Amino acid sequence: MNLTLDEILEGARGKTGGLPDPDSGSWREGLGILLRDHARENRLTERGWASVRNRYVDCLASRIVVDDWHRRHPDLASTPIERPVFILGMPRTGTTMLSYLFESDPAVRSMLRWEAYNLAPPAAPGALRSDPRCLAEVAKDEGILKAAAKVAAAHFEPGDSPTECVHLVAQDFRSMMLAVTTTTPTYHDWLLFTDMESAFAHRKRALQILQSTNPGRWVLKMPSDALFVRQIFKTFPDARVVWTHRDPYAAAASAFGMRGATRAFSEVDAGAEYMRRHFPLQFALHLARPLEVSRERPGDFYHLYYDTLIGDPVAEMRRLYRWLGDAFNPEAESGMTRWLAENPQNKHGKHLYSYEEWGLTRDDMTPYFADYLQVHPVAKAPLA
């Protein structure tokens, strides 16, 4: 089975009721590379083909809806995204926990998972968690937990929780989410070096829609923003960056395990060879690029260390708010304390991981981490 770009476009047109095609053709390049990779690699199962088709149709349909909404509300284009906070770093370094702690503050605006593909019309004021589209997504959570228990042990997002901006840049088909969930070697390596301007422009347009009815200080989580950190400041000049740091050996091993578990849903196997050949460079660039930019713009980066966050989350958040210049008020502190009590570590099961199942050793990864560890010596001794 193969898919064509025209089939995806026709599916998106049908899903949006015949709205005009996207204003820009920037999405075509990435989608074309993905579809050629799928055909050449021939690793998708029947369920996998259905899954990628649905995902790509959803991405393009969301793009169409955003463009149409802006066309009908041209004033949105001039509304600023003020002082957004970007959470980035290697995968599995505490970015999710940090985003949940931020979202516990009523003054913070996060993009919720249900919003990522329901961008317009935006939720009515104050209705982010009572919107029927939100309730429909939350109703699916129990089924997701049952069907994907191994994945949930590593990472689970309820329908009304903060989510990653990978979904927004995927609507321009420039997203690490699309590179790691199936075997797409050409796309993966293209993405590491492609121009992200069009994807970030779409991301900004989506956020302008969402904040038009429910404003707030944006806190945006996307670990792979580390790969595109220069584009952050080009699109959002007054951005502040929170860079999460954790032992990269542990973070990478955990990321291998989580990604392998998700890939098994769509492919004939977890794809160890693909991950072994392509992911180490990706992890190295997750470290090298923010390391370079943080040297150029030290005042725009907050270095948040995983062990410090885990050791005393509220104290670390208080320090982070002080750096941001934001008030750490009682509502924020009580919200965070409540979230921590309701969400202990390993709530959905313990995530076990190792390098051996992917045909790698710790020593294989050392060259990819050496420069970073000279500056941020967070590596721990290997377990005996």
From TrEMBL:
Keyword ATP-binding on entry: no
InterPro entries with a match to the protein in the record: P-loop_NTPase, Stf3_sulfotransferase
Molecular function via GO: transferase activity
Keyword Transport tagged: no
SUPFAM superfamilies: P-loop containing nucleoside triphosphate hydrolases
Keywords: Transferase
Annotated Pfam families: Sulfotransfer_3
UniProt cross-references to Gene3D superfamilies, sorted A to Z: P-loop containing nucleotide triphosphate hydrolases
Superkingdom as given in the UniProt entry: Bacteria
Name this polypeptide is given: Sulfotransferase
Annotated organism of origin: Novosphingobium aerophilum
Organism taxonomic ancestry: Bacteria, Pseudomonadati, Pseudomonadota, Alphaproteobacteria, Sphingomonadales
